[in-house]
Amino acid sequence: MSIQFFGSTDIGEVRDSNQDSYYADYLDCGIEGEGEDIFLAAVCDGMGGANGGSYASRLAIDTFVAELSAGMKNIITEKLSQDACEVLLSYAAKCANSEVYQAARKKESLRGMGTTLVAMMIFRDTVYAVNIGDSRLYIIADDGICKLTRDHSYVQKLLDEGKITEDEARVHPNKNIIMRAVGTDPEVKPDFFKVLPDKKTFLLCSDGLSNFVDDKTIEKIIRSSVSLREAVETLIEKANAAGGGDNITAVLVKV
Fold first, then answer.
1. H, E, C per residue of 13-81
2. Number of separate helices (H) and strands (E) present in the chain
3. Which of 11, 138, 192, 238 is most buried, judging by how many CB atoms fall within 10 Å of its CB?
4. What is the pTM of this model?
5. For residue 115, which of 130, 98, 100 has the smallest C-alpha distance?
């Protein structure tokens, strides 16, 4: 399967530091001659001050990638069912949660830190994804753009309860309050998704993009760009032009 990808992150126009982290590459499971390509992309948006947020997002990414690499090696060498991927992704996310939570408890300056996590893994012609928080995974296909993940946010809760409209949600003063995150509690439950990747483009992003550029504009930019690099750079430029009120991270994956 041919996979193209490109990712970038930007501090934005307002923040003093960048608390986002991302990963986009093939996993190195330390297996020779197996011929099993495993692609992973992930975005984390940290919180808890400049030091805490950036530390949380990087620790979460590093832990998540390490656990997946070790676990996928077992799945391949022991010839386990692909159903094991769901268990593994959830386990890796929970390990990231534990590492961030314990780090925050050990150091006073890191107390209260946490991060979002959205990730997708392509393995044997299937996309597996997990999400915690309000960083998003979009799918761009022939029939348009759709958001695969569901935000774990206060505004999403209000939407689900029918208390506000989509238009009101976009400008709600509390739209940055998230109700589920990596590292803020001893345990966390990730959402899990599974889709076929055929002829699709996937966008993983922090809310520094989705809060400042609407879905239709995101789709238009991706479709009109001559390369994934151009699309990502244009998306970041658009978010900054709209105010750049947060760190901006975008990873595009084309299958």
1. CCCCCCCEEEEEEECCCCCCCCCCCEEEEEEEEEECHHHHHHHHHHHHHHHHHHHHHHHHHHHHHCCCC
2. 7, 11
3. 138
4. 0.94
5. 100
User: Do 96 and 64 meet the contact criterion of CB atoms below 8 Å apart?
Assistant: yes
Distance, first Cα to last Cα, the chain: 7
- The residue ranges of every structural domain in the chain are 4-148+180-254
The whole-number average pLDDT for the span 244-253 is 98
CB distance 61 to 40 below 8 Å: no
Minimal CA–CA distance to 253: which of 162, 139, 170, 172?
Answer: 139
Rounded-to-integer distance, Cα 92 and Cα 38, Å = 15
Give the integer Cα–Cα distance in Å for 157 and 154: 5
Work out the burial of residue 174: count CB atoms within 10 Å of its CB; fewer than 13 is exposed, 13-18 middle, 19 or more buried. Answer: exposed
pLDDT number for residue 172: 85
* For residues 191-207, average pLDDT: 94
List, in order, residues 6 or more apart from 95 with CB less than 8 Å away: 63, 64, 67
pLDDT tens profile 45-89: 999 876 899 999 999 999 999 999 999 999 999 888 888 999 999
> Rounded CA gap, 245 and 201, in Å?
26
Structurally, what CATH architecture does the domain formed by 4-148+180-254 represent?
Answer: 4-Layer Sandwich (3.60)
10-58 per-position pLDDT tens digit: 999 999 999 999 999 999 887 765 668 999 999 999 998 768 999 999 9
228-241 and 215-224 helices, crossing angle to 10°: 140
- State which amino acid sits at residue 136: R
Query: pLDDT at residue 170 above 80?
Result: no
